């Protein structure tokens, strides 16, 4: 698959204004999700894994008890691309804030 282009800082800040649950910069975008329990957090990660596998695009995930920290970046491009925005939108559809 061809490597998607990195977004410019302007493109990224425009996109982030439509993704209020996400913050970050051209090095990566972040969202933190708190679930009611550890098992709910694990289930949320499992649901995100389905999306990630379907897209072949994977978030970096840090689980602390019932809080999930996500960082999304296109590793192969060395920055944020449109694929990251697509993944963020899919995650928000799955886990609305
Ligand atoms: C071969 C496969 O497409 C690549 O290894 C994919 C898999 N998932 C990925 N996910 C993310 N976030 N960045 C990547 O560069 C990436 N590469």
TrEMBL record:
Reaction(s) catalysed (UniProt annotation): (4aS,6R)-4a-hydroxy-L-erythro-5,6,7,8-tetrahydrobiopterin = (6R)-L-erythro-6,7-dihydrobiopterin + H2O
Keywords: Lyase
Top-rank taxon, per record: Bacteria
Xref: InterPro entries: PCD_sf, Pterin_deHydtase
Biological processes per GO annotation: tetrahydrobiopterin biosynthetic process
EC number: 4.2.1.96
Gene Ontology MF term list: 4-alpha-hydroxytetrahydrobiopterin dehydratase activity
Class of enzymatic activity (EC top level): lyase
Pfam family, one: Pterin_4a
Family to which this protein belongs: Belongs to the pterin-4-alpha-carbinolamine dehydratase family.
PANTHER family (alphabetical): PTERIN-4-ALPHA-CARBINOLAMINE DEHYDRATASE
Name of the molecule in the record: Putative pterin-4-alpha-carbinolamine dehydratase
Species this protein is from: Blastococcus mobilis
